[in-house]
Each structure stands twice: as structure tokens, then as C-alpha cells.
Amino acid sequence: MELTVAALYDVHGNLPALEAVLAEIDADLVVFGGDLVWGAWPRETLELALALGDRARFIRGNTDRTALTKDDPSCLWVRARLTQEQREFVLDWPETLSIDGVLYCHATPRNDEEVVSPASPESRWEEVLAGVEEDVVVCGHTHLQFDEDHAGHRVVNPGSVGSPTVRATAWWARIGPEIELCSTDYDTRGAADAWIATGFPRADFADELRAPWTREQLLEFLETL
Q1: What is the pLDDT of residues 77-135, one digit of tens each?
Q2: 60: which DSSP letter?
Q3: Domain carrying residue 30
Q4: 147-153: long-range contacts, CB 8 A cutoff, minimum separation 24
Q5: How many domains does the chain have?
Q6: pLDDT digits (tens, 9 = 90+) for 40-80
Q7: Which residue from 60, 99, 149, 204 could staple onto 93, CB 3.0 to 4.6 Å apart?
Q8: What is the CATH number of the domain that holds 10?
Q9: Beta bridge mates, 21
Q10: What does the alpha-carbon distance between residue 30 and residue 52 come to, in Å, rounded to a whole number?
């Protein structure tokens, strides 16, 4: 790994969180690993990411896909705030990227909403990583930051920029030449209040900015999926 990549996953339309992270990163590339626009500030978040120009790379996550194809209230809310051109752009993002010997995916290399976690049996990891050639796999989706070895690969989950677990902060990772798990503190309570004020239908995401799930709560929930 020669390039330095900032891996920003699961921003979930949280503009204040993304602003805070981008203010402190210094990397050759910024990979947005899915679930970027579904949240309280979809257009503003996308436009801020695009302002990085050629440094930005994008993967489509499950809520990027469903926000633009399903008709529940939150999806309709997001869709109404993006232009047709922006919606087409997001839907055209790839599901995986291989950069400098690292595979970036949203949930697993084969599926954008499949759940694996540190609590998953090794047989499960062997199943979802079968056929992957890269030594390092960066995945998100579960909003839980970790760096572990599974099925012959180093698996890194940067955590969630915009919807934290464990601690109220913005989680992310720096990939290459070394791998570093990072976090950026910002005013999460102020962001929660501003989130509610936008009218986005999912107020529970604002609640999690004030009182994130613990690691134990999250792992227990993931085991039910």
C-alpha cells in the first residue's frame, strides 16, 4: 500500500460529522464506502464529498440504493432533495473498489447489506470472503469500528462517520502504508438538534448521536439479523 486513503463509511447524510472529518484528514484519496446520502442533509453531504474532486471515490451502499428506489417516508424525503442528475450519479456507483491492493466494499464483497461482525463464526467469514484476492478488505455497514484477521485477510471496519456506536464521535480509518483507526470529535448533541430540525423522518438516528449503542448492544442486535 503506497497511497494514503481516508476510508469514510456510513456518513448517513450527517453534514456536521463529515465537515469535521474532512477538516482534519490529509490523504491522497477519500473513499466514501457507502450509505452517504440517506440522512438529514443528503444534497449538502453529496456536494461536500464531490467538492474533493478527483480525490473522491464512491461505493454504493444499501441505503444509497434503497433511498433512490423505495418509497418509504425517509427514502421519499431524501429523493426529493436530490436532483435527477444526482440520483442517477449515486445509483451508478460501483459496489466494490480495488485500490492499491485493498478491496473496499460496503457490507461484504458480494452483497451491500449482508451482516458480518467480530462475533460472526470464522466459517461465516470464510463464506463471505471466498474468492477475494486482496489481503486487506475494508467494509462497513455495521457501524462498528474494528481491525481483525479473518479467513486469511485483514478486515478493517472504519466505523460510521455519521451514526456512531460505542462513543459519540465520527469514526473513520486511514489506510496505507499503515492502517490506523481514527475518530473525530464534534458537537454531536448540536448535530442531533439540527438533524431533528431538518424534518428527516428518522429521528432515531438523532437519538443515537446523543446516546450511541454500546458495543454489546450492537453485537447482540446484529446477531438477530
Answers
A1: 999 999 999 999 999 999 999 999 999 999 999 999 999 999 999 999 999 999 999 99
A2: -
A3: 5-222
A4: 147/173, 147/179, 147/181, 148/118, 150/122, 150/125, 151/122, 151/125, 151/126, 153/129
A5: 1
A6: 999 999 999 999 999 999 999 999 999 999 999 999 999 99
A7: 60
A8: 3.60.21.10
A9: none
A10: 8
